[in-house]
Structures are given as structure tokens and as C-alpha cells.
What does this fold into?
Amino acid sequence: MKRNNQTKNILCAIIILISIFPSGKIIAQFPVFEASVTKEIYFKNMPSASGIVKFQDNYFIIGDDSPYLFKLNSEFQLIKKIKIFSDKKIKNDRLPKKLKPDFECITIVPWGNDSDLLVFGSGSTKEREVMIRIDIDEGKESIKSYSLKEFYKHLTKKIPENRKLNIEGAGYWNNYLILLNRSDNTLFKIDLDDFKEHIRGKDVPKIKSIKFNLPSINGILAKFSGMTVLPNEDIIVFTASVENDPNWIINENIICSYLGIIDLNQLENNEPICKLIKINNNLIQEKVESIYVIDKSDTLIKLAGVIDNDNGSSKLLKIDFKKL
It folds into this structure.
């Protein structure tokens, strides 16, 4: 991915601070915080990282042009790669842009007596209207693929005609599947049981959609790039990025990243809380594709974020958000 260095120096990376009272309520007016990247981990042979989740003691990472699900231990060491998508044109563990399923988001949902991973294609082309379900309980790692053509067709009806679907965030909350659309910053809320029935052949489920107003830098709007739900909270933590290019499908000029929060009990409030900060006294000039909560307390939230290095490798950031 090519970047305009001059523009990168002008348009900065942003991360939004969050904190939680012991009662679990989000602080509306921020006190003073600091955020610091405590560690950067490079993965030379993990292409195009785009989503991350944790199940039990393991982390799982997907890549938007990779046919593999990457399994890491609690120390973020790569211990296994699991093939979840088959194609004869795989080269260097990557799929050609025109053929890739564009796996942009991953989440964990209850499925029967198990917990399964759902991996979503972005839906931006017909090759990307796919979902992979992986049963990861007790090391089973059984894999099943589903077409989301009709489901994505109905999602597309919820966004403006001049926008294409581009699903980049997924999460689970209170028996709802939550999806984030990048092209117009829309959140979709779907009953998970109804969604399961749909992919088994029933009608498309009811879809609630809410469009969010995200900040802009020099007139360029930030757009969703990933999400997670805080454990035991009704709060989404999302990532968003600003790019200096109208072609959001290509994503060749990502110039900064955001973190933000959405209260799932107040979705009518469509302007997420945001705050400009620095990390280690430097500004991140990369796209944070997605995040997951490692741990949290009343004064500290530990996050893991993934970055696509656009050269067949990826990077993981460990980030501390600390109340001063």
C-alpha cells in the first residue's frame, strides 16, 4: 500500500480514550488519561491482519486476503494456522485481490452448546458475500462456509444508493449480532437466532440500522474499520480510520486511526465519544484494523490491535489506556 508521506505528516492518527466507573457507566466528561503502546509484535508470515478475538487462552487473527485463521497463545506467539478458505490461486499464503473473500471481521457467538467463530467477508463484491463458521471448542476446529448473498442484499438496502456495502466490524451482544459498515458508518443490529435460521434457509431476519456521525480531519471523514464489545458491559469499542482517497475499497491511502465507544443502550445517540491523544509521545500513522480487550479494571483497559503492513506481514499492538 502506497502512502503520501507529506499528507501523513499533516493528517495525524487519533485514538479515543475510554474509561469505566466501577458501576460500569461510561464517564461522559473525560478526566486526564494517558495511552501508551507497551509492545509491538511483528508477524513476518501473517498477511493482512484485519480482525482479532480471544477464546479461552488463545487469540485468533484473520487476514483480509489470507485463507488461514491464525492461532496464537496467550503470549501472542503463533502456534498454528488453520485453513478456512480454499482456492487454487493461493500464492505466498495470499489470495489475489479480485478473488479474495476479503475477511474483514471476526467475532465469537454462542452456537448450540459451543462457542463458534464467525468470519465475515466484506460484501463489497460478489466474491466477498461469504461467512465462515469455525467450531473452536476443545480443539475441534470444524469449518463450514455460508453464502450471505441475500442477507447482504438486504443490508445494502439500508444504506444510501451511492454507497456499497463494506462490512468491517462484527460483535456479539445480548443475543444480537452487531455489524459495522465502513462506507457510510452504519451499525446493523440483528437477532442472532433469526440470523442462524436465515443461513439455514429461512427468511432474511429483521435488520435495525443506525448511521453514526464520526469525526473528520481536514474535511476527510473517519470510517469504521473494526470493533469489539467490552466484556460484561453494554459498550462497543470500535476502530475507525481516515484515508486520503475516495476509493475506500482499495484502501491505499490510510493516514490515521481512531478508537471510539458506542453505548449499545443509547444507540439513538449517534455521535460517539472521542478524544485526541498521543501514544508514547508519537502519533500513529497507520490503520488500526481492529482491536480486542485483553483485560480491564476501573483505571486501566488493555487492548490488542492489529495492523496490516500491506507487504505480506502484519503487526500487533499492545495498548494501555490508563487513568491518571
Q: What stands out?
A: Residues 302 and 320 are 5 Å apart (CA to CA). Confidence is low (pLDDT under 50) at residues 1-32. Residues 5-323 form a domain with the Neuraminidase fold (CATH 2.120.10). The first helix runs from residue 5 to 10.
